[in-house]
Amino acid sequence: MKHSAQALVGLLLPSLIFARVYPRSNTTELGLLATGNVDLGDWADAYAKAQSLVAKMTNEEKISVITAGSVESAGWKALNFKDSAQGPQGYEYATGFGMTSALAQTWDKAAIYEQFKAIGDEFYGKGFQVANGPSTQPFGRTPYSGRLAEGLGQDAYLNGVATGLGTKAFVDAGVISGGKHFLLNEQETNRALRGDKQPYSAVVDDKALHETYLWPFYDAIKAGMGSVMCAMNKVNGSLSCENSDLLNKLLKTELGFPGQVQPDVSAQATPFGSANGGLDYGSSRIWGTQTLIQGIASGNLSQARLDDMAIRNIIPYYKSNLANGKQPPLAQQTDYVDVRANHSKIVRSVGAASIVLLKNINNALPLSKPRTMAIFGNSAGPATAGPNYQFTVDGSPSTYNGHLAGGAGSGMTSFPYLITPQHALTSRAAEDGTMIRWILNNTYTNTIPSLPTPPGLPPLLSGGTALHLDIPPYATGAEVCLVFINAFAGEGGDRTELRNTEQDALITTVASHCPNTIVVINTIGTRLVESWIENPNVTAVLYGMPLGQESGNSIVDVLYGAVNPSGRLTHTLAKNEGDYPGICTELVCNFVEGNLVDYKYFDSANVEPRFEFGFGLSYTTFSYSEVTITTTKPEALASKYATGKVGVGGRTDLWDEVASASVTVTNNGTVDGAEVVQLYISYPEEAAQPVRVLRGFEKITLPVGGQGSVDFGLKRRDLSFWDVEAQEWAVAKGTYMLSVGASSRDLRVSGTLVV
Ligand SMILES: *[C@@H]1O[C@H](CO)[C@@H](O)[C@H](O)[C@H]1NC(C)=O
Ligand SMILES: *[C@@H]1O[C@H](CO)[C@@H](O)[C@H](O)[C@H]1NC(C)=O
Ligand SMILES: *[C@@H]1O[C@H](CO)[C@@H](O)[C@H](O)[C@H]1NC(C)=O
Ligand SMILES: *[C@@H]1O[C@H](CO)[C@@H](O)[C@H](O)[C@H]1NC(C)=O
Ligand SMILES: *[C@@H]1O[C@H](CO)[C@@H](O)[C@H](O)[C@H]1NC(C)=O
Ligand SMILES: *[C@@H]1O[C@H](CO)[C@@H](O)[C@H](O)[C@H]1NC(C)=O
Ligand SMILES: *[C@@H]1O[C@H](CO)[C@@H](O)[C@H](O)[C@H]1NC(C)=O
Q: So which residues are the signal peptide here (predicted)?
């Protein structure tokens, strides 16, 4: 959730504001752009413009800039911020995109860019300057985290690529990308300062901090992120938005972030703690003009820091070229400003491309004009009050009573319409001549007894059909049974379960009568399938995240083979809940697993998952050639540590391409399709890495018999580990094992790279 700084004021209790004195940290000065610690590169021009604008302002005017005010004399208009990474939330005549968690499941860089670009265009068209996204984190150290529908996958590399592409797309659309959440905002439970109630404090070792949690922010900042939202939780005992080590030392110095740090709701508590801690934009209640002017007089705040704050608010505006006067004016929520263009096509194609086929036996899929079909479950059809449901940040039920196609809280989708599976399947049935019936209720039992058949006469109808209206006869009488289930959660409430008794019982009941039962899942995160996955009557399973306004069409495209499934899991599906960390209920949350999140844990502990990270079936098959590995820039690896100057996105040489790996992939099956070719690296011991880590992926579409070459360019960063002692990214000497395959556990070919 994100409001303007002014709207925020009412949420803060005055008692908080002067509750504690935060000394100025000795890392405060590090974050000043004027130190020249960061080589601004292609931000230099925007910096010069921002500097000269701020130079014309009085301190009062600078304070106005940092508290969401306009400065008429300087021609500065307050920026308009808006949630979220799925589109301008709450706006009419905007597209109901699929959640970014679905987008990540495409593993398709072009699709990721295309969707984010379309979303960015919608923000721009509605007159917003800052789009609060992408949301790289919550990252998903625990699958119970309530907000994973908004995430981009539980692997730093995948998440980083997607975050970088999303950032670039927003910038290309002409808006400022306001990524979140910085940092270690991994759960909803105890996340926020409320009255006297302190948020949890996250503690993670410095190595995992860099290799898992900061990693995607490197991509974002390199790609041009202009605003970063600091989180509600604490890190190492101090609020994220007042944590100088986090904001000044890491974000603004090590990562070279040149833009503005803005607070999540109620994440700013004190005037000088936040200003000196690195927050650049905040509440006018906390940053009253008098308070800050007096702070400068008494030395609690430096003039240099106030100037830096004002400049940091303005730089991204120039960098995104928002000063050109071309942007449409700010639209109000219900104004008829239609920004949707042809984006519904993107929603449909991305939705289909994101679906993971988990199981497919007896040639259950694709469907081909079934004579009879029965569909079951409340997730197949519409919710009673339409697609746009109640905004809640106070926890959510664990399932959704209707077809789940969007997120909740600040990740909520605003739907202009929603094609449900029932709708899309009905249209298809009409074309194909399929008899279709449904029961859109997970626990339905028909209490009206079947009428007795009078002797010598045909059976009496129990309502326009020869079948008694109930789950068992519908299942028994159908050539194919489709059961729809979901899992729901959102901002403000963590998951309480990873499976659901009512839904699992529905599947088992249907399957006990129907030997061709297909399950379709739409979930906001991990949804376990153990209760029925081995049931031989469950012949196929589709696993999707919330797919947006075209959800039913996307699902039908995959069910009938118009689209060959090519989504891949961005998280591991375990056999047991106990294989994952739970929600932390203490006020100090030690992320003891460090880097061993998701598959990295399963691999290191040798735990067999049900479906591993990167997994997904297709209607065709692919074969892999041997892998060719080359060091393309050996001189760049001569030094152990990255030595480049610090630019926007960290030391510049981290981004040098130093090696490459390539394979040829062949579609040796019987239908056209797309493969996600994945590269995993095992490092020399010194790097102290997980068993293997993802360091490349490409989606390649191949016709039957077609061959294509996939090339992975490896950057210096991809071979680096964080050397805690040296406080630098380092490349270990030794042998790297590079494995290429179809998932994290289906490695087809491998080779070595010696540094
Ligand atoms: C602050 O400075 C002291 C002494 O110079 C140093 O020991 C300490 O590590 C510094 N703290 C931070 C957070 O950099
Ligand atoms: C928090 O403290 C730990 C242990 O002292 C340290 O390794 C880590 O870098 C600190 N994190 C931040 C963000 O300062
Ligand atoms: C400002 O600084 C003075 C001394 O430097 C200190 O006593 C005072 O508490 C500070 N005020 C705030 C609000 O931090
Ligand atoms: C949507 O429209 C844009 C701009 O007119 C065009 O470039 C793009 O190809 C279209 N996309 C689809 C999927 O039709
Ligand atoms: C589902 O069916 C059961 C049993 O027939 C009934 O009690 C329940 O109210 C129905 N639920 C909904 C949401 O209609
Ligand atoms: C599978 O379906 C058949 C009916 O076709 C039924 O007899 C059998 O018990 C079912 N098996 C399971 C495991 O439900
Ligand atoms: C396609 O290649 C895979 C992997 O090499 C192999 O297992 C499969 O049998 C091949 N399929 C066909 C139809 O040749």
A: 1-19
